[in-house]
Recover the amino acids of this structure.
């Protein structure tokens, strides 16, 4: 597929060529079963084997301890913004939230509709360009849980270290940086996210949930909204997003073959280092609007000093086959999403293009 473009979209986003080739190769006849994985019953052996291999691989790659359930749901990461407070924010308790950008802000706003929320950080004044120092973050008394978004996909800021919350459950949305680095899962009561940024085709939402959390869910929740419905059944209470999960399984195999979480972290550091190096080095043309201490290694947000050149930059990038570099409509500017699957040479090509653009227009 020689006409593949350089895909810097924020999500859904680039997938490894090996994974796309495998999907294509197996689409009509999955492993000689005579039917496709996406035509198979989710109660049958073909799906069941694939699904449990997927869950096992996820556990292995992230080092998820035994006392956590792992499953996939529908509804996107967005449904979890509601399910988390519905299940874990009891009457008389308070949940600690951080407003650090689009995604944690949405989660906060949903929680505020369902219970009492304390904001331990609000990035509004800095235009969501920075995060709190994790050492200064402390849960409230009577805190039901402390919530954060590990990587703000739109703002381009990423937690580099985690707050110590003691007995207070720590819950994180890791939609856009899951498996881009090792994570001490045992510090978290719950980690979740949509798979479409870093793990596979859109559809599934992964949930990693410490089992003792299940005791907190109120009995009056309807079936789908209660984690107790899903955890004991590995997420197979209802029909799971089969195609998405199949894609995730193949991406996990690709991650494993490329060094696992540590391999992905090394790769992300090289790619982000190259790109931020260009932004800083070509400082007459480009700048990074975010706190250097929290620069995301997945979503690199940058601006042109001369705003009027931005359109031209994006247009010429498009002509070079570089897609998805326009910043989110809510913030403007430019953003290169450089997820796990994005080839290193694509970042090198972007840097070459930026260098040439700065030379011609500087
Ligand atoms: C994309 C994204 C979401 C929303 O995911 P959906 O699956 O579209 O609901 C939530 N959080 C973060 C960090 C994201 O990047």
């Amino acid at each position: 597929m020689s006409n593949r473009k350089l895909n810097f979209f924020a999500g859904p986003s680039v997938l490894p060529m090996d994974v796309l080739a495998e999907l294509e190769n197996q689409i009509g006849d999955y492993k000689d079963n005579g039917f496709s994985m996406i035509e198979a019953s989710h109660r049958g052996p073909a799906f069941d084997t694939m699904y449990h291999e997927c869950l096992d691989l996820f556990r292995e790659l992230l080092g998820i301890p035994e006392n956590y359930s792992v499953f996939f749901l529908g509804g996107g990461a967005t449904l979890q913004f509601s399910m988390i407070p519905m299940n874990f924010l009891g009457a008389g308790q308070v949940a600690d939230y951080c407003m650090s950008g689009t995604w944690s802000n949405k989660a906060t706003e949903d929680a505020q509709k369902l219970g009492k929320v304390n904001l331990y950080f609000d990035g509004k004044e800095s235009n969501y360009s920075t995060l709190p120092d994790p050492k200064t973050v402390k849960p409230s008394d009577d805190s039901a849980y402390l919530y954060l978004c590990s990587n703000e996909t739109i703002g381009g800021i990423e937690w580099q270290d985690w707050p110590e919350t003691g007995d207070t459950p720590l819950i994180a949305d890791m939609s856009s940086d899951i498996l881009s680095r090792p994570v001490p899962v045992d510090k978290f009561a719950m980690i979740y996210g949509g798979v479409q940024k870093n793990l596979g085709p859109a559809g599934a939402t992964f949930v990693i949930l410490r089992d003792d959390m299940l005791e907190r869910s109120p009995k009056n929740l309807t079936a789908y909204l209660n984690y107790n419905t899903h955890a004991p059944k590995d997420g197979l209470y209802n029909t799971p997003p089969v195609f998405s999960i199949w894609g995730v399984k193949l991406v996990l195999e690709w991650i494993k073959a490329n060094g696992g979480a540590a391999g992905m972290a090394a790769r992300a550091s090289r790619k982000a280092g190259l790109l931020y190096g260009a932004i800083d080095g070509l400082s007459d043309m480009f700048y990074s609007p975010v706190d250097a201490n929290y620069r995301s290694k997945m979503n690199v947000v940058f601006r042109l000093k001369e705003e009027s050149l931005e359109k031209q930059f994006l247009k010429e990038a498009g002509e070079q086959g570089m897609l998805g570099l326009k910043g989110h409509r809510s913030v403007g500017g430019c953003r290169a999403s450089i997820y796990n699957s994005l080839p290193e040479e694509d970042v090198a090509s972007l840097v070459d293009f930026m260098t040439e653009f700065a030379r011609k227009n500087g």
The chain has two domains: 18-257, 260-361. The longest helix spans residues 260-281.
